[in-house]
Amino acid sequence: MLGYTITQWLFGILSFLAIMFALMVVFTRNPVNSVLYLVLTFFCIAGHYLLLNAQFLAVVHIVVYAGAIMVLFLFIIMLMNLNADTEPRKHIATRLIAGTIGGMLLFVMVGALKGSEQLQLVHGGSSQIGLVKNLGKVLFSEFLFPFEIASILLLAALVGAIMIGKRDTNINSKETINN
Amino acid sequence: MLNGIPINFYIMLSAVLFIIGVVGVMARRNAIIIFMCIELMLNAVNLLLVAFSTLHNDANGQVFVFFIMAVAAAEVAVGLAILSMVYRNFKTIDIDLLSRLKN
Predict the structure, then answer these.
(1) Between B17, B32, B72, which is nearest A22 by CB?
(2) Which residue in chain B is spatially nearest to A43 when comparing CA positions?
(3) pLDDT of A78
(4) Which chain A residues are Cβ-neighbours of B7 within 8 angstroms?
(5) Count of CB atoms within 10 A of residue B56's CB?
(6) DSSP string for residues in A13-38
(7) What secondary structure letter does DSSP report for B91?
(8) Which of A79-93, A101-115, A133-147, A153-167 has the lowest average pLDDT?
(9) B28 and A99 Cβ atoms separated by less than 8 Å
(10) Residue A140: how many CA atoms within 13 Å on its side-chain side?
(11) ipTM
């Protein structure tokens, strides 16, 4: 097909879809649609991981992002009853300036990164490091201590989220007493 | 080349995704959308880490991506708890209004 392999076609299609969905995240008025487009972007990125033969990360990405984090976002948005009518909009000048700054930043990054890494003939498709077995060996030997620290971090985040999200009963009871 | 895809293509794709996230943070006023754009930026970096890890046949990059995902999950949990508390107190999550509500 025009001299391209199937992997190159998949890369092109997934990249196009990821960029389009990412743009829709930013430019959609309705926050719920924005979340759904972000989920689609994450699925495209998971497809990229599969192309890079990082199967473990592809599965973890879908489970953690599409499965847990985006459901949390959707839940909060529905809890706050946000939709396109209540959506605040920045002034048109601010948005134009944001777009200009983004374009200039892209220009600088593309210019700086253009010749950074020359084409290297490493065969990514045959690399086996992304499989669960090999990644697990590295994770539980070389990175065992950071792995345990990450579990403590998640526990701390859990406790913190509950403490922050809890309705402050002391203040409310004081207010009722004063009233 | 990764399966016949030059690494430069991955660099460009990650740069574009990152810039879209940056523009989203600057152009939107809804605090939740800003959070989502930060997630998008994190994922652009993750994609580049995985691409380079596969290119150099080195597992450390993918382990880093794993830890970034764990930190992102913790960050989202705490951040959304803060946002829901802000919404409960001020009935808005418009960041332009919230900047004036400090006292």
Answers:
(1) B17
(2) B43
(3) 87
(4) 117, 119-120
(5) 16
(6) HHHHHHHHHHHHHHH-SSHHHHHHHH
(7) S
(8) A79-93
(9) no
(10) 6
(11) 0.91
Is some CB atom of chain B closer than 8 A to the CB atom of A156? yes
Q: What is the mean pLDDT of residues A157-173?
A: 77
C-alpha A115/C-alpha B4 separation (Å) is 18
CB contact under 8 A, A165 and B85: yes
Tokens 């220009």: give the residue: A107
Read off the pLDDT band of A179 (50, 70, 90): very low
Q: Could you tell me if B74 lies within 8 Å of chain A, comparing CB atoms?
A: yes
Residues of A in contact with B72 (CB under 8 A): 64, 69
Amino acid identity at B71? V
Of B72, B24, B83, give the one whose Cα is nearest residue A68: B72
- Model confidence at A117: pLDDT above 70: no
Q: Which of residues 8-67 of A touch B (CB under 8 A)?
A: 8, 11, 15, 18-19, 22-23, 25-26, 31, 34-35, 38, 41-42, 45, 48-49, 51-54, 56-57, 60-61, 64-65
Decide if A146 touches B, using CB distance below 8 A: yes
The answer to whether residue A121 scores a pLDDT higher than 50 is no
Check residue B94 and give left, alpha or beta (phi > 0: left; psi -120 to 50: alpha): beta
Q: Record the pTM.
A: 0.87
Confidence of residue B96 (pLDDT cuts 50, 70, 90): confident
